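Each record in this resource describes a single protein on a pair of labelled lines. The shape at a given residue is found from the number at the same position. The record below illustrates this layout:

***
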Amino acid sequence: MISRTMRAMVSSPRAASAPMLRLGLWLLVGAAAVIGVAIGFGGASGQALNSIGAIAWLTAAVVIGLALRNDGRAGATFAAATAAAIVLAVGIRPGELAAVIVAFGVAGVLVGSIAPSHPAGWAALVPGIYLPVHLAVAISRPIIAGSTTLRTEPPPTAPLVPLAMVLAAAGAGYAIDRLRRRTE
């Protein structure tokens, strides 16, 4: 069922890079799961897993971006996905699971709505871009506030957040794709 859904997210007559996009989406989902497990573990093993997950996450974002680079209006859609990731990184605390699901779902709908094709892929690019922006914001906030400490103790729902943000955004983009296909 999940594989069929993932295939449907990227199947289109215009999907010249559909296998690459599918790979990027699966890699992003896997990276989110690894990061969630790493947050749950904590300690040295959690840090090691988190590093692996972060590298996979960034790789997934690059793969998705490369797969979508020849999409019509790619520049404008990439700018919208980047803007959405910045707004989310500044405005949403990742410890608030319900807020994360709603915010990433809304971002997925907005970016997926302006995407010329592959709305789920473009919507998934939002959390893909979000991670480096989130890290920059998390590091800069204490510096701007004049503090030298970073929050290190994650809230209880934190292990669910990475996967929730990816699934909310990509799922919203997929819903846009389904709506478009019904009206065609």
The first helix runs from residue 2 to 10. The chain has one domain: 14-183.
